[in-house]
Structure formats: C-alpha cells, structure tokens
Amino acid sequence: MANEKTTHWSDILKRRLANSTRKDERNEDEKKAEETELFTKYYSEWKAGSNRDSSYKKIPRFYYRLPAEDEVLLQKLREESRAVFLQRKSRELLDNEELQNLWFLLDKHQVPPMSGEEAMISYEAYLKVGEKAGPKCKQFFTARVYGKLLHSDPYGRISIMQFFNYVMRKVWLHQTRIGLSLYDVAGQGYLRESDLENYILELIPTLPQLDGLEKSFYSFYVCTAVRKFFFFLDPLRTGKIKIQDILACSFLDDLLELRDEELSKESQESNWFSAPSALRVYGQYLNLDKDHNGMLSKEELSRYGTATLTAVFLDRVYQECLTYDGEMDYKTYLDFVLALENRKEPAALQYIFKLLDMENQGYLTVFSLNYFFRAIQEQMKIHGQEVISFQDVKDEIFDMVKPKDPYKITLQDLVNSCQGDTVSSILIDLNGFWTYENREVLVANDNDSNSALDLDDP
Fold this sequence. Notes:
The protein is an all-alpha fold. It has helices at about 1-20, 30-55, 70-90, 95-110, 125-130, 145-150, 160-180, 195-205, 220-235, 245-250, 250-255, 265-270, 275-290, 300, 310-320, 330-340, 345-355, 365-380, 390-400, 410-415, 420-430, 430-435, 440-455; strands spanning about 120, 160, 190, 240.
C-alpha cells in the first residue's frame, strides 16, 4: 500500500514538472526546493482528503434500514435470511438424544456419597463430562454455571439433577425464543397482537388439554389468551411486546403446562389459559349480555361478580375504556376482568388507579376518596346496613398506604404499600368493603372451622 502511494505521488510530481513551461535555467538546489514544496503540498492535501473520506469506515454500523413495503425483493431476502439464521440457531440446540447422552455421562461420573437422595458431581468430574459431552454442551460447563449451582455441600459438589434441570431449562428457553421469533414479522425482537394470535392459534393442536375445544371457539380462546399477555406486559398500550419479556414472565409456562395430559382439576381452574377457565370467562360474558347483541351495556356489566360494584365506578369504566356506542366488547371486558381478578398486581392497580384518578392528576386526594366512598355509603343504605363514617375510612386508608405526601396517594404508593387491592376494594365494591370491615370476624370463623375439622379427624 505504501509503495502504491509513493508511486502515485512521484507520478504527479513528474507530470507537473514535465508540463512546466519554465525554462530549465535554475540550479539544482532551486529544482530540489520546488520539488520538495510541491511534494509537501500535494501529500498534505492527499493525506487530509484520505482521512476525511475514510474516517466513516472506522465507525461501526449500528442502523440497518428496514425494507419499505414496496421493496418486495428486499423483504423476501430479509425473511429468508432470518429463517436461515433461526434454523442455524435451532441446530445448535441439544436434541433429545444428546440430552439423554448428557444424562448418562453425568450419572456415570457421579461422586459419592449421595446428598440425601440426590446424586452429586465434583468440579473435576464435571469438567471431564464437559469434554466428553460434545461442542454443543460447552456453554454449560463453565466455572460460572458450577458456582451458581454450588450450595452447602461439604465436599464442594453440585447436584446432578439440578444441573441437568438447568440445562433443560436453557434449551427450552432457546427453543421457545426461536419459536416466537418465527412470528416476529418485523424482525425487531417484539410481537404485535396479530403475531401472538397466530402463535397461540398454531399452538392449540399441540396442547392435549385443549383437545375438547370446538374450532368455533378458537378465535375467542385466542383472544382470551392474548389479552393476558398484553394486559400485563404492555402497560403503555403500544400494541407490541418484547419477546424477552414474554420469556421472562410465567405466562408461557402456564400456557405450555397444558401439554400435561394428567393436569389436575385444581391446576386447570387456576390456569387462565386452560379450557375450563376460558369457557368460564366467556360464559360469564354471555350471561351478562342479556340482549344478546354481543356487547355489554353499563347496566349489564353492573351484574358482574356479586353485582356490588358501585355505579360511580362503572361510570368511570365506560368513560375511560374503549366502547362502541356506549357498549363494551369482549376484548375490553377481558381487560376489566383481568384487572379485578388480579388486584395485587401493579398492572391491575394501574388500570384501577386510572379510573379512580378522575382529573388525571397522577394522585388521589381526600376529595377523590370521598367521591367514590359516597357510592359505597349509598349502597349500604339501600341494603339496610349501618353507614360507616368516611372520616374513619379515610384515616384507615392513609394509615395502610403510608404515602410519601400525607395528603396525596400515588400509584407507586399503592404498589409499595402492598395494600392496593384492599384500598381499591374498599372504594369500588360494597362486597369488598364488607369483607374488609368484617375481616376479624371472618378470620375467627375460619379458625373455628379449622378447629372443628381437627376434632373430627380420627
């Protein structure tokens, strides 16, 4: 490269001197001085220009423009390259045969004595297994992984079962990430609502616990399942969720738990994604829809649950939530159900707090609390109950929450206090308030019932 540059400048100088119209009447020193001057000038210009032109090459490229909709060829190329990349990543994962081989190697190299009923392995044996297990397993046999799994064994060993479960979990996470990435149309690491709907729709036939679902119910099931992901993982309502967030939460575990053909009835009832749970939620919606128009009016929604939600709270629901000619569709209803059934969760509290914060100030004042509690007092009068003073309830709420500002309660105050579910129940639901007010009696009754059961036991 240096020789090329030298030749380049010598050629320029020779041409320049050859084209000079000046007579050769100068002495050698003058000629050499002019040559040096020209060389210095052109070399300086070349060097400055070279640095300016090539400097951008030193900056790593960090932005790759996505193909526009009309760039069909570029889009196809991107899709194909992503598919090839994901296939390559998939081939890097351990298959069932390789996992079996890993288990046999671990079992063969276990180091006695056993810890209870668990087989153990030392660090030396662990490294030997890593050498024999093959290149795909190399990432799992590191000092860092061993240190993570090292607990209180007096011989400095780790549990073979714990290590194998760790490997299985990692393989499952990578498999799931690749599976989800296939539905990431934009290739940006997130799924839109339609992407996740497609993923779950194609997952249904692989889940034995959903075998009994009629195909006509699939669209309602998919809507029910997708809403839970978006309600909790997209609090800003951007319409997309990071694949990383989907993997980090437990929802996918709950969904894939439906692969278990022998899942207990209790587990099915507590799993939002199970067939009984989805049918329960949709059945409630149909029962509330008295005029069978597929939507819920405010009067129809008032019969939700124990039918004790206050009219003031329901007014706020229909003011803030998406409705169609004053009526609520199934998707909006699902958000409503998820909020009320999970009041301890920050996302649910955010939903309810937005309804309680009438002036969108970012905090609740004594006036806000009084406004909602008056509706509870009115319901108490209707049911012939003794009306409780707001002053007493207000003091209890502030004592429970302990806000940073003694006159304002923020959403973060509710979350930090771990009492957000109780506060919201007191303000929006007569049954919730009654449960809170009679909590000591209910606890005593539970204890009496447990004592009676103990006496009945042989």
